Amino acid sequence: MSILRAANAQFLKSLMASTLVMMPPAAMASNTLLAATSGLEQTRDAAAPTIEFYGPAMLVRLSVAQNAHCPAAILSKLANDPSDEIRGAVAANSNTPDADKDRLARDSNDIVSEAVLLNPSFVGPATLSYLANSRQPKIIETLAANPKTTPDVLSKLAQGPIQTEYLLLSLARNPHLPPEQVVRLSRVGDRLVRTFLARQSTMSPAALAVLAQDGDLGVRSFVAQNANTPASALELLSKDNNEVVREGVAANPSTPIAVLKKLAGDTSWAVRLEVAQNAKSIKEDPTLIDQLAADKQMRVRWALATNHSLPAAVVEKLANDSSERVREAVARNPSTVPDIIKRLNKVNSVAIDQIIAARPSLSSDMFAVLSGSESPLVRHTLAQNPYLPESDAKKLMADSSLMVRLALATNSFKGTAPGNSWRNEVFKKLSSDGNEDVRQAVATNPNVDAAVLSGLVNDASVMVLRALASNPATPEAALISLAGNADSVVLQRLLNRVQRPGDAVFDQLAQSKDAALRLLVAASNRVPSSALKALSADRDPNVRVAVASNPLASAAVLESLGGDASLDVKTAVAANKNSPASLLKKLAGDDELVRAAVAGNASAPADLLEQFSRDKNPDIRRAVAANPAAPAAVLTALSDDSEVWIAVPGWRQFN
C-alpha cells in the first residue's frame, strides 16, 4: 500500500509541475511552499526535491496580461497586480495605455521597467527621459538600443555616468544618435565601438577624420577602406607605417588621384596591386597605367589586366606579357577585343583556351576552333557555354569524352533563340546516352523540352527518376507516372517540388505504403482536400493527427475525426481553427487535454469560452485567457482569477 501512496504522491508532483511554473530563485523565500502530497501521506524522494511554485491562478492572470487582444481597461487593472511577472507582461503589451506604461517604467522591479522599453507600441518622451536617469545598466542599455529612443535621450545616455561597453555599442548602432555624439564616441569609445563605427558606410567625414588618427591598426584599416573618409584623412593614412592601412587607401574609390600616384610607387607590391585594380587610377591618369603595366611584380601586372577600363594599347602590351597568369587575366577580361582573343588562342595554352571557351562573345570561327581542340578540358568548358552554336553543339553531343557530354547536358543554351528545334535534338540524343550521369544531367536540366523529359520516365536508373521528380519543367503526366514509383526518395521529391504538383499526384502519394511519406503528405501546406479526406481514415494515428492539425483540413474531415479513438487526434481537431462550433461544443465535454485545446481555439464560440472561464481546471482557464478571441467580459473575469485547482481529475486518478 505504501508503494501505491508513493506513486500517487509522485504523480501529483509531476502533475503540478506540468501545470504550474516554477518560481524564480529570488521569489522563493517570500512565498508559501506548495506541498506536492496534498493530503496524502508525505513521501520524500531524493530524486524529486521539494519545489516552490507560482499558483495556477497567477498563471491565468499572466495569460490575460500577455494576450495581444486584451482590452486597455483590463491591462490598467493588471498593472497594479502584486506579481512582478504580470506587471512585466502588462508593461510589454502593445495595448497598455501610455499612462500605465509611464507608471510601470517607475516600478520598483527593474525587469518591469525594462519591459516597458520592449513594448512594440509608442513610449512617451517623458517615460524615456525618466528611464534615462536609471542607475541600472541593463535598463539604460536597452534604452540605448531602442530605435524609438529620441536623440536628446540618446545624447543624455552618451554623456551619463554609466559607460558600459554594451551601452556605447548600442548607442553607436542606434541610427538616431546625434552626429556630435557619434564624433564623441569615435574618441572615447572602446576598441569594439570604434571598430564598429569605422566600418559604417553612413559615418560622417568628421567622425572618420577622428578615427583616422586612432591608435588601433584595425580601426585605421577600416577607415582607410571607407568610401566616406575625407581626402585629407586618406592622405594621412596613405603614409601609415602598416601596409594593410595603405592597401585600404589604395583600393578606396574616394582616394585622390595624387595619393594613388604616390602609392603606385609604394615599396609593398600588395599596395601597388590595389592601385592597379582601382578604376579611378585607370580613368584619370594614363601615365599611371603605363607605370603599373611595367611593374616588375607579376601580381601587379595581373591585377592591372583584370581592370575593365584599360586602353587598347595597354591590353595589347599585357597580352604579350611574359607571364601566363597575366595573359590569362587578359583572356578573362570581358573588354578584351576579338583580335587579341584570337592571338591568345594561338599560344597553344590549355589554361588560356579554357578561359576563352567560357567567354560569351566568341565568333563562329572561334567556336569552331575550340570545339575541335585536342584538349577535353577545353571542349568541356565550351560545352557549357550558353551561346554555343548549333553545329558545335551537335558535334559535341557525340564527343568521346564523358565529361564533355555531361557538360553539354547541363547547358542552358540561354544565348540561343528559344524554341530552336536543334536544342531538343541535342537533348534527345543525350537522354539516350549510355552513361547514367549524362541522362541524370538531362533529367535535371530545367531547359530541356517536356517531350524529352517525358521520355525519361521509364529510365532504368533511379538517379535519373529522382532528378526528373525535382525538375520544374517535368510535365504533369510524367509526375503522375512517377508517383507510382516504389522509390521513397522519388516520392519525397515529388512532394517537395518547388512547383506544386497536381492533385492527382497528391492523391497517389496518399496511397503510399510508406507511413512516413503519408505523414508528410498529411502535414503538407499544399495538400488537396481529396488527399486529406483519404488520409483521415489512415490506419496510422500519427497520420490522422497530421490531418487534424492541417490548416487546410475541411470541416467535414474534422467532423469525421472528432470521434476518433485517439486522444491525440481529437486534441488536434479541437485546436484546428476550421473545426465548426458544433464540433467544438461536442469536444468541450471530452478529455481534459481536448477541452484545453478547445479553450485555446480562436474559433470557439463566445458562450463556450465564457463557460470555460469558470472551469475548475486552471489549465482550461489559462487557455481561455490566452485566446485572442476571448471576449472582454471573459478576460475581465479571468483577470481576477483566484481559483486554485489542487484535486486530481477523475480521469487521471489511480485505481
Give an overview of the whole structure.
With 655 residues, the protein is an all-alpha fold. Among the domains are: 1-54, no CATH class; 522-600. It is built from 47 helices and no strands. Helix 5 (84-92) packs parallel to helix 7 and helix 7 runs parallel beside helix 9. The protein is flat, with a radius of gyration of 36 Å.
List descriptors.
mainly alpha, 655 residues, disordered C terminus, disordered N terminus
Care to give the gist of this entry?
With 655 residues, this protein is mostly helical.
Spans of at least 5 consecutive residues with low confidence: 1-53, 645-655
User: Based on CA inertia axes, which overall geometry fits?
Assistant: flat
Which sheet architecture does the biggest sheet show?
none
Structural class, by secondary structure, is: mainly alpha
Query: How far apart, in Å, are the first and last alpha carbons?
Result: 12 Å
Number of DSSP E strands? 0
Helix count from the secondary structure assignment:
47
The quaternary state of the protein chains shown equals single chain
Radius of gyration over C-alpha positions, nearest whole angstrom: 36 Å
Residue share in helix: 55-70%
Mean pLDDT: 89
Strand content: under 5%
Describe the protein's topology:
Layout: H1 2-19, H2 25-28, H3 56-66, H4 72-78, H5 84-92, H6 98-105, H7 110-117, H8 125-131, H9 137-145, H10 151-158, H11 165-173, H12 179-188, H13 191-199, H14 205-211, H15 217-225, H16 231-237, H17 243-251, H18 257-263, H19 269-277, H20 279-284, H21 286-293, H22 298-305, H23 312-319, H24 324-332, H25 338-345, H26 350-357, H27 364-371, H28 376-383, H29 390-396, H30 402-409, H31 421-431, H32 436-444, H33 450-454, H34 462-470, H35 476-482, H36 488-495, H37 503-509, H38 515-523, H39 529-535, H40 541-549, H41 555-561, H42 567-575, H43 581-587, H44 592-599, H45 606-612, H46 618-626, H47 632-638
Helix pairs in contact: 3-5, 3-46, 5-6, 5-7, 6-7, 6-8, 7-9, 9-11, 11-13, 12-13, 12-14, 13-15, 15-17, 17-19, 19-22, 22-24, 24-26, 26-28, 28-30, 30-32, 32-34, 34-36, 38-40, 40-42, 42-44, 44-46
